[in-house]
Specification:
The chain is an all-alpha fold and 129 residues long. The longest helix is centred in the middle third of the chain and has 93 residues. It is rod-shaped and about 150 Å long.
Length: 129
């Protein structure tokens, strides 16, 4: 929609029709200047609060995204820690078995040496009696 009469009116042709209305509005503004000034200040404060709140909402959204990213990273780290623990347990068992094999081989060699020494001593001294 356009301005209606204002679009087709000649210059100053609407003064009679709108002059009294404009005069009444101007008088109201002059009579209520303090109220209008307070209203302007309140509107400015509302705009400022609105801007601050929009900024806070943006920050909250960013934090939400950061928390989501952090939660994902935490989940990945937990999975990696479990895999590391499992691998560590497997390696510890493998090393224990390897260590036991070495101990058994050394014990076997010692038993064979003791048996050889005992047989050579007994064979030389006739240990049957």
């Amino acid at each position: 929609m356009r301005g209606g009469k204002a679009d087709t009116a000649a210059a100053k042709s609407l003064n009679k029709e709108f002059g009294p209305v404009m005069k009444e509005h101007m008088k109201y503004i002059i009579d209520h200047a303090e109220e209008i000034e307070k209203l302007i200040k309140v509107k400015a404060q509302v705009s400022e609060v609105k801007s601050i709140m929009l900024g806070n909402i943006d920050k909250a959204i960013d934090r939400g995204e950061a928390i989501t990213t952090l939660a994902d990273k935490t989940e990945t780290l937990r999975d990696q820690a479990q895999a590391y623990k499992k691998q560590g347990t497997q390696i510890r068992r493998k090393m224990w078995y390897q260590n036991m094999k070495i101990k058994l081989v050394v014990l076997g060699i010692l038993l064979i040496l003791v048996l050889i020494i005992w047989l050579s001593i007994c064979h030389g001294f006739d240990c049957s009696n």
